[in-house]
Amino acid sequence: MKGAATHIVDDDPAVRDALQWLLRSRDVPSQTWDSAERFLAFASRDVCGCLLLDVRMPGMSGIELFDRLRALQCRLPVIFLTGHGDVPMAVQALKDGAFDFIEKPYDDNLLVDKVLAAIEHDAKRCARDGAIQLLQQRLALLTQREHEVMQRILAGKLNKVIADELDIAMRTVEVHRSHIFEKMQVRSAVELSQALGMLGDAPNSRSGS
Amino acid sequence: MKGAATHIVDDDPAVRDALQWLLRSRDVPSQTWDSAERFLAFASRDVCGCLLLDVRMPGMSGIELFDRLRALQCRLPVIFLTGHGDVPMAVQALKDGAFDFIEKPYDDNLLVDKVLAAIEHDAKRCARDGAIQLLQQRLALLTQREHEVMQRILAGKLNKVIADELDIAMRTVEVHRSHIFEKMQVRSAVELSQALGMLGDAPNSRSGS
DNA sequence: TTGCCTATTGTGGTTTTCCGCAGAGAGCCG
DNA sequence: CGGCTCTCTGCGGAAAACCACAATAGGCAA
Question: CB neighbours of B96 closer than 8 A, spacing ≥ 6?
C-alpha cells in the first residue's frame, strides 16, 4: 500500500501547518497537499490512512475531489473540514460515503479521535481489499470452462448433474473441479463458498463513532 | 410485518396534515403520531416502511426517539425533518444510521423521492431480516452437540477429523450431520455455508441517493 | 514444427459421504 | 414407570468424490 498516512488537503498554509502540527504531536504521521489537483494526481486505489479535506478551495473543491476519488475506486476515508458548512452538503457527503464532516473551528481532541477512528477503519478496509484482490487474482486464473463448473459447484450440484448440464463426462468435471480447488487454493467446496462469500459483501458501510 | 407505511411523527398538526396530504397525493400510505412517546409505544422490531421524524418536539425529541428505537432493535429508516438543524447534529444522526436529514422548508418532490427511496430500502431490509430470523429460528433447533459438529463442518473438516476431535465415532458424526442438514433445511455443506454467510454481513449500510 | 495450454475421456481403485436398520445408556417429564 | 429426546455406536451397502496414470485433440505462439 502506498502512503499509509493522514493526508491533509487545504489551500491555506496556516491550516495545513496547524493540522500537521496537531497530528505530529499525537504521533500521527501526515502529509500535506496544497490543492485538490495535487492530491488527485497522487491518489490511487491503494492509498491507505485517511484524508482531511477542506471543502472550499480555489480550483477543485473538496467535494469535487471526493467525487473524483470515488470514481477512481479510491476508498480512502474522508473527513471534511469546513468553515461554512450547510446541512444539505454534509448530508450528501455522508450519504456518499464520507467518513465525517467537521465544522471549523474544530476541537483538537475530537478531531484527532476522528482521525484515529478513520485510520483504524481504513486499516480493516485495506486488509479486506487485499484479500478481495487476492481472490480476484485467483479467479482470473480460471478458464471459462472452470468458471462454468464452479458456478454449479457453488449451486450445490453433484458432479453427475454438472456433467449432464454441460454435456461432458463426469471425469472431466472431476478434473475441472480439482483444477478449480488448486487455483483457488482451497481444499473443499465449503472453503470455496466461504472465500467467495466476502466478494458479495456491501463495500459501503461505516461504523458509528 | 406490522405497519408497512410511512410514519409521520410531529407535534405540529399543520405539519402532520401537510405531510400526510403530500404523501397521499402520491399514493404513499401514511400514519401520523403527535408525539415521540406515542410512536415509541407502537414501534417494534418488525415495523416496515419509513419514519418521517421532526427533531424538535416537546417532551421526547426526535433524536432521542431515534436512539430509543435503535436500542429496541427497530431498524426502520428514519428521515429527520428540522427547521433549525445544525451540521453536527445531522452528521451524528447519519453516522448513527439515519436515512436522511432534511431541513425545512423542504421541497415536496425531493421529500417524496427520499421517502420512496427509504421505503424501497426498507423493503429489502425487511426481506433480509426475515431470512435472518428464519435462519436463527432454525439454528435454535440445533442441540449443543450439533452446533459443535456444524462449526467443524463449516471449517471444512472431514467427518473422520471431526470424530477424532470430539472423540466420538464417525457414525455419530454422520448422524449429527444429517440432523443438522435436516433442521437447517439444506442439502449440502455448501448450502449451509452460504445460508450462514448472510448472518455475518454488515447490517449497517445505506445506498447513496 | 515443437511445446504449452485447454478440454476432453477412460480405467481402476481408494476414500468419503450418506443412509437404513438396530440398539444402548442418560436425563427429563407426566 | 413409560414415553421422549439426546447422544452414542456398529454393520453393511450404495452413491459420490477423489486421484494417479494414460491418452486424444484443437489452438496458439516461439
Answer: A208, B66, B67, B70
